[in-house]
Amino acid sequence: MSSDKPFDLARSRCDAQTQANLDQVERFFGALDAMDFAAVGAMFSADGLYRDMPVVPDSDARGPAAIEKKLTQALGGLDAFVTGVTRVLAQGDVVMTERVEVWHLPSGEKPALPVMAIHELEEGKITAWREYWDMATFVGQLPASWMEELARRREA
């Protein structure tokens, strides 16, 4: 689960509206850690965008239902998913986070992926979530069986 300290530090440096946006992004990471993908999707505006930058535009998801589906396909087979937020910066409607995701695979492996994310918000809803990470770092840690499982989930 994400640590409260990075969010508290960021909150101490900003105005009330930015604090509200920080609260929403902190709830977002809590729901993501809980693997509650319906709750994550519900935090997005009707046309909200989730984009993984290393695989643009193939993996874009737009809207709450599509975002929930994408997360379910990618993460639904995990035993656990821990976001490990370490740094948070926020100004106005933009919240940036640095974290290390740990994917707890059913086979026992625990690949760790450094990720930088940008969330844009309007009126309490996330309008864009962009993730920046290195494909080789991630794929190099995954067993072939998990890559086959991901492919199967995308086709379903």
Describe what you observe in this structure.
This protein is α+β, with helices and mostly antiparallel strands and 156 residues long. The chain has a single domain, classed as Nuclear Transport Factor 2, Chain: A (Roll), CATH 3.10.450.50. The protein has helices at residues 4-11, 16-33, 37-42, 64-75, 135-139, 144-155, and strands at 44-52, 61-62, 80-82, 85-91, 94-104, 112-122, 125-132. Strands 1, 2, 3, 4, 5, 6 and 7 form a 7-stranded mixed sheet that branches. Strand 6 (112-122) and strand 7 form a beta hairpin. Helix 1 runs antiparallel to helix 2. The longest helix is centred in the first third of the chain and has 18 residues, at 16-33.
List the helices and strands and how they pair.
Elements: H1 4-11, H2 16-33, H3 37-42, E1 44-52, E2 61-62, H4 64-75, E3 80-82, E4 85-91, E5 94-104, E6 112-122, E7 125-132, H5 135-139, H6 144-155
Helix pairs in contact: 1-2
Count of runs of 4 or more consecutive helical residues: 6
Distance between the termini: 29 Å
What's the overall average pLDDT, rounded? 92
Examine the secondary-structure arrangement and name the CATH architecture: Roll
| Content-based structural category | alpha+beta
Strand content: 25-35%
**Poorly predicted tracts of residues:** none
Rg, Cα atoms, Å: 15 Å
Number of strands: 7
CATH hierarchy class name: Alpha Beta
Helix and strand element order: HHHEEHEEEEEHH
CATH topology: the name is Nuclear Transport Factor 2, Chain: A
**Helix content range of the residues, please?**
25-40%
Largest sheet: 7 strands, mixed
Cα shape = globular
Query: How many structural domains are formed by the residues?
Result: 1
